[in-house]
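Help!! Second protein's tokens look totally different from the first
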Amino acid sequence: MLRERTLPPVGEWPTEPEYNDELSVARDFKGVRPKVYIALIPTDDWTTVPAHLRYGGWNACPKSEYHVAALRSWRDRYGAELIGLSFDRMDLRVATRPQTRSQALELAREQYVYCNDIVDQGLGTFSKLAACLMASNLWGFWWD
């Protein structure tokens, strides 16, 4: 039987966002520096990179077609670009941040559907994520 997911709380808007302006793909975890590889993907549309790599479809990570759809939507609305990808993480840089709390909360809910770990195992509330989206040009996602 499928268990119904309980959505996280909206929560209070934080006075200071808890964002981290570091790339998660190349971050030093527990004293271990990851190897960083550079790949050339034969495409003129960077949003198709997850499809070319057959990225996703394991654990809570969406299938590649969902990545492509989300990346295209965020590219068109926020000027997002993929700047890092690892076996369980993705980093994006955006040109435009949400301008209002309402827009940021809507985007936070959208990102939660795409990657619930950023709230469930990360910030804990939609308001905290929304505040980060308004404060930083870097978006990080991870899937366990």
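Here's the second one for comparison:
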Amino acid sequence: MSAVFTEVPARAAPAVQPAIDADRLNAFIGRFVGDLGAAFHAGMVVIGEELGLYKALASGPMTSPQLADATGTDARYVREWLSSQAAGGYVMYDERADLFSLSPEQALALAFEDSPAYLPGAFQLVLGSLKAVPRITESFRSGAGMGWHEHDGRVFCGTEKFFRPSYAANLVDSWIPALGEVHDRLAAGGLVADVGCGHGASTILMAHAYPKSLFVGFDYHAGSIAAARKAAERAGVESRVRFEQASAKAYPGRDYDLVTFFDCLHDMGDPVAAASYAAKVLSPDGTVMLVEPYADDRVEANRSPVARLYYAASTTICCAHAISEGGKLVLGAQAGEARLAEVFRKAGFTHFRRAAETPFNLILEARR
């Protein structure tokens, strides 16, 4: 009986390993430990918000049983949660009295939803978006998209809570006044389309500031439109604000004095078509206000904690949605001013400029 042998190719010689710098390795591991702790900590912040733990603690120093009693929660869980918060610098701890508390700054960021520095919504957004990781992992292989409407519900609520503080702090006081005569037109009584309005935070803030103007918020996501309508009722502006389900390329109305895109144009599968449609529905001297995540035009310049945040969110949410819509131009959340200007140039706009900025946003003005 003859034997059949399969020739096994010789293994390539192992590459020469570079010398390891112990200090650089330890520094990287230290960064990893910080990131790992932050990933777990995101869940702790969401728990604290949803159970009212931060809000109760803002009333004054408490022991863990006192905080548990005040919030109707289990004392042992609360003790562990408080310890994690103290370890991360999110609450204060007095070891002599065994009391936990919030400093004024911590309370501003964690307990008061009206605060311009309110943070828990960001963690809600993160936890919701991470539920899509298995599907996005497969999308890396298939190239398929994932629509905004397909995400976990915390993505929608978390997005509104994450962006609303910045809008509340800047939109009326600085962003709109930076747009030339737009402030005066809205003060006198104008018509505004808020495209991609989500839960309506931006629309309602403008309506409060300009009681003589009319505002229409548009979003393709039915659930967000329903939430926005309820928010308008709670805010008492429903007589001057309406919300309608519509795409960015087919919403009703004409002669808008202002068309706004708040942190949404980069999500769209065809941003040029959305900008072109805005040009059609603007009044002859109308303005587009584009609010986008802050970004430089060069990848090498986008090396910061903010850029890392936006690139990660863009991978799981923004690019995935744009691809789901056909992805004629997938901008991503770090598009940069030059690429955005090109979008509006292709759409027929002749004027495009940076009107304002914050560490988190670019505020851009476009006119025909």
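Reply: Different proteins will give different token patterns, so don't panic. The chain has 14 helices and nine strands.
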